[in-house]
Design goal:
The chain is an all-alpha fold. The chain is about 65% helix and about 0% strand. Helix 7 packs across helix 8. The radius of gyration is 21 Å and the shape is globular.
Length: about 300
């Protein structure tokens, strides 16, 4: 019951947060129609923009073909429209083209070309999603030689722009001394930033979610004061977000990712706690809402 209510709420908040400020304009109207599922209206509005060689419209139509939204699902057509936008320097389209090259959808699979397009969107376009896609490629050596330092560089760039996934990776790096000097306090800071957001890479299982990772810090008293109540709160949220499977062996070998799942850690911790502590942790989990973490730092003059 808790998971269903929590996930429904979290997804609703995420959807609202993804909607930009209301303002009149063909692009905004087309996006609003897509978001509302009114694909007939969306295609009509996009048609006018396509006549103007608008890269936003080319990207939007490409995504509609890839996903089969209002048009027959067609990876080749999707790639065609996305490539038009990508060639105009539209970063979102460049990233999507990279994904299609990586997956071999609508085009012959070419991992080197995927990296090329990710880099264009990450570097010139400054797109965090492309930055973490590029970092992932360097992390595992997919389309480019494995380069852990280069991977961490791009994770940090994306983290500085607010990607929860990249912030979580930075936390892992500092906790385990991966390409940086080991620092539990810095790890906790990065986990805290990531854990208070909706995780943007829930399907990535080489490391645990930031909710799991900050829970482990609270449970052990590393980087912060030991607090079983907060630990149980965060393990419960990690389980609600779907962190319920053991991590991939790659993560275990690379950064010693814990093998225990969030439900296992949650249940083990509950056995050490009083009923009052458990009730308090459950209350905190129920009341949690995603929010930005603002760190106030003094400035010397």
């Amino acid at each position: 019951m808790f998971r269903n209510r929590f996930v429904s709420f979290a997804l609703a908040v995420w959807a609202l947060a993804s909607v930009g400020p209301a303002c009149a304009g063909p692009q905004e109207d087309a996006q609003a129609a897509i978001d509302a599922g009114d694909y007939v209206k969306a295609l009509q509005l996009l048609g006018t923009l396509l006549d103007q060689d608008n890269p936003y419209a080319e990207h939007a139509l490409g995504v509609m073909y890839i996903k089969g939204l209002g048009v027959p699902q067609d990876d080749v057509m999707g790639m065609r429209w996305l490539r038009l936008a990508a060639d105009k320097g539209f970063a979102d389209a460049q990233n999507e083209v990279g994904v299609l090259y990586q997956q071999g959808r609508g085009v012959e699979r070419n991992l080197a070309d995927a990296v090329k397009w990710f880099r264009l969107a990450a570097d010139k376009g400054g797109l965090p999603l492309a930055q973490i896609n590029l970092a992932d490629c360097y992390l595992v050596g997919l389309g480019a030689p494995q380069n852990l330092a280069e991977a961490l560089k791009w994770y940090r760039i994306a983290a500085d722009q607010g990607s929860a996934y990249a912030e979580n990776v930075m936390g892992v790096a500092y906790e385990h001394g991966f390409q940086v000097t080991q620092d539990d306090g810095e790890a906790f800071r990065w986990y805290r930033r990531a854990a208070n957001k909706i995780y943007d890479r829930p399907g990535s299982t080489w490391i645990h979610s930031p909710q799991y990772n900050i829970a482990a810090m609270f449970a052990s008293g590393r980087g912060t004061a030991q607090d079983y109540v907060r630990a149980l709160m965060w393990f419960s949220l990690a389980a609600a977000f779907g962190d319920t499977k053991p991590p991939a062996q790659f993560g275990v070998e690379l950064v010693n990712t814990p093998k225990d799942t969030a439900p296992e850690q949650r249940d083990r911790l509950m056995a050490l706690m009083t009923g009052a502590q458990i009730s308090e942790a459950q209350r905190l989990a129920q009341e949690w809402r995603p929010h930005l973490v603002v760190t106030i730092q003094s400035q010397t003059k």
